[in-house]
């Protein structure tokens, strides 16, 4: 009974448990600096405007690698009284380096204050973000330390139970991320365009590793 209690104590304390093997849960947290600025812009234009025209207007403003997310015909909902005619709303997205965030916002702001024909309005916003490729690099770097931590935890339980720790039988992983400070943004809302500094985003990698034991 005392041996069973001792094993149970070490299992709870180390985040591992003895069953048909030993499961050890471990975490690693890293802070990643944003490496891209994600822009979303909505341009409205008359119903006879073509996508090629919008493409040319964006290219002329220095915006090259963008994606059309949607094209919707609708009446404007942000003016009163609402207009009696519908327009096309082109929703586009693109990514640039963080250092170019303000420059591209200025291009869009110039379009917003003086829309080039046939565009009638421009709204936009941008946020600093960590790219998926940067997250994956951090994940790959965290794998070896996570496995080492898990083996250390599992070894503690195995030793207390008088067992010999074996090979890894399985691994499950999750990841969570959250900005360490309010995210940076630029927007063309009713407020003046502004930005907030950001020091980075913390990503925590979670892993549960199952080891054989005998």
* Biggest beta sheet summary: 5 strands, antiparallel
Question: Numbering strands along the chain, what is their spatial order in the largest sheet?
Answer: 4-5-3-6-8
Roughly how much helix do the residues carry, as a percent range? 25-40%
Structural class: alpha+beta
Report the order of strands and helices. HEEEHEEHEHEEE
Number of structurally distinct domains: 2
Indicate the proportion of strand residues: 35-45%
Gyration radius over CA: 27 Å
Number of helices: 4
N- and C-termini, Cα separation: 20 Å
Please tell me the overall pLDDT. Answer: 84
Q: Assign the CATH architecture of the largest domain.
A: 2-Layer Sandwich
What is the CATH T-level topology of the largest domain? Translation Initiation Factor IF3
**Stretches with pLDDT under 50, minimum 5 residues:** 1-15
Shape: elongated
Number of strands: 9
CATH class of the largest domain: Alpha Beta
Summarize the SSE layout with pairings:
Elements: H1 2-14, E1 16-18, E2 22-32, E3 36-45, H2 51-60, E4 66-74, E5 87-96, H3 101-113, E6 121-129, H4 132-161, E7 165-179, E8 185-187, E9 201-213
Antiparallel strand pairs: 1-2, 2-9, 3-5, 3-6, 4-5, 6-8, 7-9
Helix pairs in contact: 1-4
Summarize the structure.
This protein has 4 helices and 9 strands; from the N terminus they run H-E-E-E-H-E-E-H-E-H-E-E-E. By secondary structure, it is an alpha+beta fold. It starts with a helix and ends with a strand.
